[in-house]
Design goal:
alpha/beta, Rossmann fold, 6-stranded mixed β-sheet, 14 helices, 17 strands, 27% helix, binds iron/sulfur cluster
Length: 439
Protein backbone atom coordinates (compact mmCIF):
# COMPACT_ATOMS: atom_id res chain seq x y z
CA UNK A 1 0.00 0.00 0.00
CA UNK A 2 1.27 3.50 -0.88
CA UNK A 3 2.54 5.52 2.10
CA UNK A 4 0.03 8.12 3.26
CA UNK A 5 0.79 11.83 3.39
CA UNK A 6 -0.51 15.42 3.47
CA UNK A 7 -0.25 18.28 0.98
CA UNK A 8 3.01 20.28 0.73
CA UNK A 9 5.70 20.02 3.46
CA UNK A 10 9.49 19.71 3.41
CA UNK A 11 12.29 17.15 3.79
CA UNK A 12 14.90 18.50 6.25
CA UNK A 13 17.97 16.34 7.07
CA UNK A 14 16.69 14.01 9.78
CA UNK A 15 19.76 13.82 12.06
CA UNK A 16 18.25 10.74 13.75
CA UNK A 17 21.38 8.60 13.12
CA UNK A 18 22.89 9.94 16.38
CA UNK A 19 20.41 8.11 18.63
CA UNK A 20 17.97 5.91 16.67
CA UNK A 21 19.87 2.74 17.55
CA UNK A 22 20.58 3.71 21.17
CA UNK A 23 18.33 1.73 23.56
CA UNK A 24 16.65 3.77 26.30
CA UNK A 25 18.90 4.09 29.40
CA UNK A 26 17.40 4.67 32.84
CA UNK A 27 18.93 7.77 34.46
CA UNK A 28 18.54 8.18 38.21
CA UNK A 29 18.69 11.77 39.50
CA UNK A 30 21.72 12.93 41.47
CA UNK A 31 20.81 16.47 42.52
CA UNK A 32 17.66 18.23 43.71
CA UNK A 33 14.44 17.81 41.72
CA UNK A 34 12.61 20.95 40.51
CA UNK A 35 8.87 20.79 39.82
CA UNK A 36 7.44 23.91 38.11
CA UNK A 37 3.74 24.29 38.89
CA UNK A 38 3.08 24.93 35.16
CA UNK A 39 3.87 21.90 33.00
CA UNK A 40 0.76 21.94 30.84
CA UNK A 41 -1.58 24.22 28.88
CA UNK A 42 -4.04 25.85 31.27
CA UNK A 43 -4.06 27.13 34.84
CA UNK A 44 -0.84 26.51 36.83
CA UNK A 45 -1.10 24.19 39.85
CA UNK A 46 -1.19 25.37 43.44
CA UNK A 47 1.64 23.92 45.61
CA UNK A 48 0.30 21.46 48.23
CA UNK A 49 3.56 21.33 50.22
CA UNK A 50 5.80 23.81 52.03
CA UNK A 51 9.49 24.11 52.91
CA UNK A 52 10.55 21.36 55.32
CA UNK A 53 7.74 18.90 54.43
CA UNK A 54 8.66 15.28 53.74
CA UNK A 55 7.27 13.99 50.43
CA UNK A 56 6.94 10.50 49.03
CA UNK A 57 7.39 9.20 45.48
CA UNK A 58 4.10 9.61 43.62
CA UNK A 59 2.65 12.05 46.17
CA UNK A 60 0.61 14.88 44.70
CA UNK A 61 2.55 18.13 45.33
CA UNK A 62 0.66 20.45 42.96
CA UNK A 63 -3.15 20.61 42.81
CA UNK A 64 -4.81 21.39 39.48
CA UNK A 65 -6.53 24.76 39.60
CA UNK A 66 -9.38 25.22 37.17
CA UNK A 67 -10.80 22.76 34.64
CA UNK A 68 -7.94 22.97 32.13
CA UNK A 69 -5.08 21.90 34.40
CA UNK A 70 -3.31 18.72 35.57
CA UNK A 71 -1.88 17.81 39.00
CA UNK A 72 1.88 17.35 39.56
CA UNK A 73 3.50 14.55 41.59
CA UNK A 74 6.87 14.11 43.26
CA UNK A 75 9.07 11.62 41.41
CA UNK A 76 11.29 10.85 44.42
CA UNK A 77 10.96 10.75 48.21
CA UNK A 78 12.73 13.45 50.19
CA UNK A 79 12.36 16.85 51.81
CA UNK A 80 10.92 20.03 50.32
CA UNK A 81 13.89 22.43 50.21
CA UNK A 82 11.90 25.42 49.01
CA UNK A 83 8.79 26.59 47.19
CA UNK A 84 9.90 29.53 45.08
CA UNK A 85 9.95 30.86 41.50
CA UNK A 86 12.57 29.05 39.40
CA UNK A 87 13.67 29.21 35.76
CA UNK A 88 11.37 27.14 33.50
CA UNK A 89 12.49 25.62 30.16
CA UNK A 90 10.32 28.27 28.43
CA UNK A 91 12.65 30.99 29.76
CA UNK A 92 10.26 32.49 32.36
CA UNK A 93 10.29 32.15 36.14
CA UNK A 94 7.56 29.85 37.44
CA UNK A 95 6.57 28.92 41.02
CA UNK A 96 8.30 25.60 41.70
CA UNK A 97 8.64 22.98 44.43
CA UNK A 98 12.28 21.93 45.00
CA UNK A 99 12.78 18.50 46.58
CA UNK A 100 16.01 17.15 48.07
CA UNK A 101 16.10 13.48 47.09
CA UNK A 102 16.73 11.12 50.05
CA UNK A 103 17.56 8.26 47.66
CA UNK A 104 15.02 5.94 49.34
CA UNK A 105 12.30 6.18 46.67
CA UNK A 106 9.69 5.49 49.33
CA UNK A 107 6.31 5.30 47.61
CA UNK A 108 3.12 7.13 48.51
CA UNK A 109 0.42 4.59 49.53
CA UNK A 110 -2.02 6.25 47.09
CA UNK A 111 -0.18 4.90 44.03
CA UNK A 112 0.00 1.40 42.49
CA UNK A 113 -3.76 0.92 42.88
CA UNK A 114 -5.33 -0.50 39.79
CA UNK A 115 -8.03 -2.78 38.49
CA UNK A 116 -9.01 -4.31 35.16
CA UNK A 117 -9.94 -1.37 32.91
CA UNK A 118 -12.61 -3.48 31.22
CA UNK A 119 -14.48 -3.46 34.55
CA UNK A 120 -14.06 0.31 35.04
CA UNK A 121 -16.66 2.87 33.98
CA UNK A 122 -15.76 5.69 31.57
CA UNK A 123 -15.91 8.17 34.49
CA UNK A 124 -13.54 6.04 36.61
CA UNK A 125 -10.98 5.81 33.78
CA UNK A 126 -11.18 9.51 32.92
CA UNK A 127 -10.86 10.48 36.58
CA UNK A 128 -7.85 8.22 37.04
CA UNK A 129 -6.12 9.73 33.98
CA UNK A 130 -6.89 13.24 35.31
CA UNK A 131 -5.60 12.44 38.81
CA UNK A 132 -2.45 10.88 37.31
CA UNK A 133 -1.66 14.27 35.75
CA UNK A 134 -1.42 12.87 32.21
CA UNK A 135 -1.02 15.56 29.55
CA UNK A 136 -0.17 15.52 25.84
CA UNK A 137 3.54 14.75 25.75
CA UNK A 138 4.01 15.63 22.08
CA UNK A 139 4.75 19.23 23.02
CA UNK A 140 1.50 21.03 23.73
CA UNK A 141 0.77 19.62 27.19
CA UNK A 142 -3.02 19.71 26.86
CA UNK A 143 -4.64 17.71 29.72
CA UNK A 144 -5.44 14.27 28.28
CA UNK A 145 -8.67 13.70 30.23
CA UNK A 146 -10.23 16.68 28.40
CA UNK A 147 -9.16 15.37 24.98
CA UNK A 148 -10.76 12.03 25.90
CA UNK A 149 -14.04 13.73 26.87
CA UNK A 150 -15.48 15.23 23.63
CA UNK A 151 -19.07 16.50 23.76
CA UNK A 152 -20.52 13.56 21.77
CA UNK A 153 -18.63 10.29 22.37
CA UNK A 154 -20.51 8.47 19.58
CA UNK A 155 -19.19 10.92 16.96
CA UNK A 156 -15.64 9.69 17.45
CA UNK A 157 -14.79 6.95 14.97
CA UNK A 158 -11.00 7.33 14.73
CA UNK A 159 -8.32 7.16 17.44
CA UNK A 160 -5.00 8.11 15.87
CA UNK A 161 -1.76 7.40 17.69
CA UNK A 162 0.91 9.71 16.41
CA UNK A 163 4.10 7.75 15.80
CA UNK A 164 5.34 10.08 13.06
CA UNK A 165 8.07 11.79 15.12
CA UNK A 166 8.85 13.97 12.11
CA UNK A 167 11.06 16.52 13.94
CA UNK A 168 14.74 15.99 13.05
CA UNK A 169 17.01 14.43 15.72
CA UNK A 170 14.16 13.16 17.95
CA UNK A 171 14.08 9.40 18.53
CA UNK A 172 12.33 9.02 21.90
CA UNK A 173 8.94 7.96 20.44
CA UNK A 174 10.74 5.63 18.03
CA UNK A 175 12.58 3.89 20.87
CA UNK A 176 9.32 3.56 22.85
CA UNK A 177 7.61 1.88 19.88
CA UNK A 178 10.57 -0.50 19.47
CA UNK A 179 11.11 -1.27 23.16
CA UNK A 180 7.65 -0.82 24.72
CA UNK A 181 5.32 -1.75 21.85
CA UNK A 182 3.13 -3.84 24.20
CA UNK A 183 2.44 -0.82 26.43
CA UNK A 184 1.59 1.37 23.43
CA UNK A 185 -0.84 -1.30 22.20
CA UNK A 186 -2.43 -1.72 25.64
CA UNK A 187 -2.74 2.06 26.08
CA UNK A 188 -4.58 2.25 22.75
CA UNK A 189 -6.90 -0.61 23.81
CA UNK A 190 -7.82 1.44 26.92
CA UNK A 191 -8.67 4.47 24.77
CA UNK A 192 -10.72 2.29 22.41
CA UNK A 193 -12.60 0.97 25.44
CA UNK A 194 -13.70 4.60 26.01
CA UNK A 195 -14.87 4.96 22.39
CA UNK A 196 -16.72 1.76 21.47
CA UNK A 197 -17.58 3.01 17.95
CA UNK A 198 -13.99 3.93 17.06
CA UNK A 199 -11.18 2.12 15.30
CA UNK A 200 -7.56 2.62 16.40
CA UNK A 201 -4.65 3.51 14.11
CA UNK A 202 -0.96 3.84 14.89
CA UNK A 203 0.61 6.05 12.22
CA UNK A 204 4.37 5.69 11.68
CA UNK A 205 6.67 7.23 9.05
CA UNK A 206 8.28 4.84 6.55
CA UNK A 207 11.80 5.67 7.79
CA UNK A 208 11.03 3.61 10.95
CA UNK A 209 10.62 0.03 9.65
CA UNK A 210 11.56 -1.60 12.99
CA UNK A 211 8.89 0.38 14.83
CA UNK A 212 6.33 -0.57 12.16
CA UNK A 213 7.24 -4.26 12.54
CA UNK A 214 7.12 -4.16 16.37
CA UNK A 215 3.77 -2.37 16.48
CA UNK A 216 2.32 -4.77 13.85
CA UNK A 217 3.44 -7.72 15.99
CA UNK A 218 2.03 -6.17 19.20
CA UNK A 219 -1.38 -5.58 17.60
CA UNK A 220 -1.67 -8.63 15.32
CA UNK A 221 -4.67 -10.01 17.24
CA UNK A 222 -6.52 -6.66 17.49
CA UNK A 223 -9.16 -6.54 14.77
CA UNK A 224 -9.92 -2.87 15.42
CA UNK A 225 -6.30 -1.64 15.37
CA UNK A 226 -4.35 -0.96 12.19
CA UNK A 227 -0.80 0.25 11.59
CA UNK A 228 -0.66 3.02 8.98
CA UNK A 229 2.56 3.78 7.11
CA UNK A 230 3.24 7.46 6.41
CA UNK A 231 5.57 9.03 3.89
CA UNK A 232 8.56 10.62 5.67
CA UNK A 233 7.89 14.34 5.47
CA UNK A 234 7.82 17.34 7.82
CA UNK A 235 5.46 18.31 9.58
CA UNK A 236 3.70 14.95 9.21
CA UNK A 237 3.17 14.68 12.99
CA UNK A 238 1.21 17.90 13.39
CA UNK A 239 -2.40 17.06 14.24
CA UNK A 240 -4.19 18.50 11.21
CA UNK A 241 -1.64 17.08 8.75
CA UNK A 242 -1.74 13.66 10.40
CA UNK A 243 -5.53 13.55 10.31
CA UNK A 244 -5.55 14.51 6.63
CA UNK A 245 -2.86 11.95 5.76
CA UNK A 246 -4.72 9.12 7.52
CA UNK A 247 -8.38 9.96 6.87
CA UNK A 248 -8.41 12.65 4.13
CA UNK A 249 -10.55 14.74 6.52
CA UNK A 250 -9.71 18.43 6.88
CA UNK A 251 -10.04 20.10 10.29
CA UNK A 252 -11.47 23.58 9.53
CA UNK A 253 -9.86 26.71 10.97
CA UNK A 254 -10.86 27.17 14.63
CA UNK A 255 -12.16 23.58 14.93
CA UNK A 256 -10.79 20.57 16.78
CA UNK A 257 -9.96 17.01 15.64
CA UNK A 258 -13.05 15.80 17.54
CA UNK A 259 -15.18 17.94 15.18
CA UNK A 260 -14.14 15.59 12.35
CA UNK A 261 -14.53 12.42 14.44
CA UNK A 262 -10.86 12.06 15.45
CA UNK A 263 -8.82 11.97 18.63
CA UNK A 264 -5.04 12.15 18.29
CA UNK A 265 -2.65 11.02 21.04
CA UNK A 266 1.13 11.01 21.16
CA UNK A 267 3.06 7.72 21.69
CA UNK A 268 4.46 8.51 25.15
CA UNK A 269 1.06 9.85 26.27
CA UNK A 270 -0.49 6.49 25.41
CA UNK A 271 2.16 4.76 27.54
CA UNK A 272 1.37 7.23 30.38
CA UNK A 273 -2.32 6.27 30.08
CA UNK A 274 -1.32 2.61 30.29
CA UNK A 275 0.80 3.23 33.41
CA UNK A 276 -1.96 5.28 35.08
CA UNK A 277 -4.68 2.69 34.52
CA UNK A 278 -2.86 -0.68 34.53
CA UNK A 279 -0.22 0.12 37.16
CA UNK A 280 -1.78 3.02 39.09
CA UNK A 281 1.29 5.23 38.51
CA UNK A 282 0.99 9.00 38.00
CA UNK A 283 2.98 10.70 35.24
CA UNK A 284 6.49 10.78 36.71
CA UNK A 285 8.91 10.02 33.88
CA UNK A 286 9.78 11.02 30.36
CA UNK A 287 11.80 9.51 27.55
CA UNK A 288 14.22 12.23 26.41
CA UNK A 289 16.63 12.28 23.45
CA UNK A 290 19.93 14.07 24.16
CA UNK A 291 21.54 14.73 20.80
CA UNK A 292 23.33 17.08 18.42
CA UNK A 293 26.86 17.38 17.08
CA UNK A 294 28.15 19.07 20.25
CA UNK A 295 27.21 16.12 22.52
CA UNK A 296 29.88 13.47 23.22
CA UNK A 297 27.61 10.40 23.46
CA UNK A 298 24.09 11.15 22.17
CA UNK A 299 21.53 8.91 23.92
CA UNK A 300 17.89 8.28 24.82
CA UNK A 301 17.13 8.42 28.54
CA UNK A 302 14.22 7.40 30.73
CA UNK A 303 14.35 10.18 33.31
CA UNK A 304 12.33 11.34 36.29
CA UNK A 305 10.45 14.59 35.75
CA UNK A 306 12.19 17.30 37.80
CA UNK A 307 15.76 16.18 36.91
CA UNK A 308 17.79 19.07 35.46
CA UNK A 309 18.85 19.26 31.82
CA UNK A 310 22.43 19.63 33.09
CA UNK A 311 22.31 16.11 34.60
CA UNK A 312 21.18 14.65 31.25
CA UNK A 313 23.93 16.41 29.31
CA UNK A 314 26.51 15.17 31.83
CA UNK A 315 25.14 11.61 31.56
CA UNK A 316 25.60 11.87 27.78
CA UNK A 317 29.31 12.58 28.30
CA UNK A 318 29.06 16.38 28.20
CA UNK A 319 30.17 18.52 25.26
CA UNK A 320 32.85 17.75 22.69
CA UNK A 321 32.71 21.36 21.60
CA UNK A 322 30.95 24.45 22.89
CA UNK A 323 27.38 24.28 21.54
CA UNK A 324 26.36 27.23 19.37
CA UNK A 325 22.73 26.63 20.30
CA UNK A 326 20.88 24.52 22.89
CA UNK A 327 17.26 23.67 22.17
CA UNK A 328 14.55 22.07 24.27
CA UNK A 329 12.63 19.93 21.76
CA UNK A 330 13.26 19.58 18.02
CA UNK A 331 15.18 22.05 15.83
CA UNK A 332 12.05 23.12 13.93
CA UNK A 333 9.61 23.86 16.77
CA UNK A 334 11.72 23.67 19.94
CA UNK A 335 12.65 26.51 22.30
CA UNK A 336 16.21 27.90 22.56
CA UNK A 337 17.62 27.41 26.07
CA UNK A 338 19.91 29.87 27.81
CA UNK A 339 20.62 27.68 30.86
CA UNK A 340 20.91 23.94 31.50
CA UNK A 341 19.76 24.48 35.09
CA UNK A 342 16.12 23.96 34.19
CA UNK A 343 14.09 20.81 34.86
CA UNK A 344 12.71 18.13 32.58
CA UNK A 345 8.95 18.73 32.59
CA UNK A 346 6.05 16.66 31.26
CA UNK A 347 6.43 18.12 27.75
CA UNK A 348 10.25 17.84 27.41
CA UNK A 349 11.10 15.49 24.55
CA UNK A 350 14.71 16.35 23.73
CA UNK A 351 17.78 18.42 24.48
CA UNK A 352 19.67 19.33 21.32
CA UNK A 353 23.15 20.77 21.57
CA UNK A 354 24.00 21.99 18.09
CA UNK A 355 27.39 22.94 16.69
CA UNK A 356 28.05 26.21 14.84
CA UNK A 357 27.64 24.31 11.54
CA UNK A 358 24.28 22.79 12.59
CA UNK A 359 22.83 25.96 14.11
CA UNK A 360 24.13 28.78 11.95
CA UNK A 361 21.43 31.22 10.77
CA UNK A 362 22.74 33.23 7.76
CA UNK A 363 21.80 36.93 7.58
CA UNK A 364 18.46 37.83 6.01
CA UNK A 365 18.40 39.04 2.40
CA UNK A 366 15.62 40.67 0.39
CA UNK A 367 12.76 38.40 -0.72
CA UNK A 368 13.29 37.28 -4.33
CA UNK A 369 9.59 36.34 -4.67
CA UNK A 370 10.40 32.77 -5.67
CA UNK A 371 7.19 31.50 -4.06
CA UNK A 372 8.84 28.51 -2.41
CA UNK A 373 7.45 29.37 1.03
CA UNK A 374 3.93 29.41 -0.43
CA UNK A 375 4.45 26.11 -2.24
CA UNK A 376 5.43 24.23 0.93
CA UNK A 377 3.25 25.83 3.66
CA UNK A 378 1.15 22.93 5.00
CA UNK A 379 -1.53 25.38 6.19
CA UNK A 380 -1.89 26.92 2.71
CA UNK A 381 -0.80 30.36 3.92
CA UNK A 382 1.27 33.11 2.25
CA UNK A 383 4.33 33.33 4.54
CA UNK A 384 6.04 36.09 2.52
CA UNK A 385 2.95 38.29 2.78
CA UNK A 386 2.41 37.53 6.49
CA UNK A 387 6.06 38.46 7.05
CA UNK A 388 5.47 41.89 5.46
CA UNK A 389 2.27 42.47 7.47
CA UNK A 390 4.01 41.49 10.71
CA UNK A 391 7.01 43.74 10.02
CA UNK A 392 4.70 46.69 9.21
CA UNK A 393 2.30 45.99 12.11
CA UNK A 394 -0.61 45.57 9.67
CA UNK A 395 -2.58 43.40 12.08
CA UNK A 396 -5.95 43.52 10.27
CA UNK A 397 -4.33 42.29 7.05
CA UNK A 398 -2.37 39.66 9.01
CA UNK A 399 -5.62 38.27 10.41
CA UNK A 400 -7.48 38.52 7.09
CA UNK A 401 -4.79 36.32 5.53
CA UNK A 402 -5.32 33.74 8.32
CA UNK A 403 -1.96 34.38 10.00
CA UNK A 404 -3.43 33.09 13.26
CA UNK A 405 -3.73 29.63 11.62
CA UNK A 406 0.06 29.36 11.32
CA UNK A 407 1.11 26.35 13.38
CA UNK A 408 4.69 27.65 13.64
CA UNK A 409 6.21 24.59 11.95
CA UNK A 410 9.13 26.65 10.58
CA UNK A 411 8.98 25.02 7.11
CA UNK A 412 8.85 28.43 5.38
CA UNK A 413 12.00 29.71 7.14
CA UNK A 414 13.76 26.44 6.33
CA UNK A 415 13.00 26.55 2.60
CA UNK A 416 13.53 30.30 2.01
CA UNK A 417 16.64 30.89 -0.18
CA UNK A 418 16.83 34.50 1.07
CA UNK A 419 16.84 33.19 4.66
CA UNK A 420 14.00 35.53 5.63
CA UNK A 421 13.08 35.14 9.30
CA UNK A 422 9.53 34.24 8.34
CA UNK A 423 8.55 32.08 11.31
CA UNK A 424 10.02 34.50 13.86
CA UNK A 425 8.07 37.46 12.45
CA UNK A 426 4.82 35.49 12.10
CA UNK A 427 5.15 34.13 15.65
CA UNK A 428 5.72 37.67 16.96
CA UNK A 429 2.69 38.85 14.98
CA UNK A 430 0.44 36.17 16.50
CA UNK A 431 1.63 37.03 20.01
CA UNK A 432 1.03 40.76 19.47
CA UNK A 433 -2.49 40.19 18.14
CA UNK A 434 -3.39 37.94 21.09
CA UNK A 435 -1.92 40.47 23.55
CA UNK A 436 -3.87 43.33 21.90
CA UNK A 437 -7.08 41.28 22.18
CA UNK A 438 -6.48 40.62 25.87
CA UNK A 439 -6.10 44.37 26.61
S1 LIG B 1 10.74 31.64 0.02
FE1 LIG B 1 11.74 33.48 0.78
S2 LIG B 1 12.51 34.50 -1.07
FE2 LIG B 1 11.01 32.98 -1.76
S3 LIG B 1 9.04 34.11 -1.81
FE3 LIG B 1 9.16 33.19 0.21
S4 LIG B 1 10.08 34.81 1.47
FE4 LIG B 1 10.50 35.36 -0.63
S1 LIG C 1 3.50 30.10 7.66
FE1 LIG C 1 3.39 28.93 9.55
S2 LIG C 1 2.38 27.02 8.97
FE2 LIG C 1 3.13 27.97 7.08
S3 LIG C 1 5.15 27.08 6.74
FE3 LIG C 1 5.46 28.98 7.86
S4 LIG C 1 5.53 28.37 10.01
FE4 LIG C 1 4.60 26.63 8.88
Amino acid sequence: MKALTFKRGIHPPHGKHYTENKPIEVLMPKGDLIYPMAQHIGAPCEPLVKKGDRVLLGQKIGEAKGFVSAPIHSTVSGTVKNVTPMLHPNGTKVMSVIVENDGLYEEDPSINQSKDYKKMSREEIINKIREAGVVGMGGAGFPTFIKLSPPIIENIDTILINGAECEPYLTSDYRVMVEESGKVAEGLRIILHLFPKAKGYIAIEDNKPEAIAKMREATKNDKNIQILVLKTKYPQGSEKQLIYACTKREVPSGKLPADVGCIVQNIDTVVAIHRAIVRGRPLMRRIVTVSGGAIKEPKNFKVRIGTTYRELVEAAGGFIEKPAKIISGGPMMGIALFSLDVPIIKTSSAILCLTEKEAVLPPEKACIRCGKCVDICPMNLLPLSLNVHALHHEWDDFEKEHGMDCMECGSCSYICPAKRHLLQSIRRGKKTILANKRK
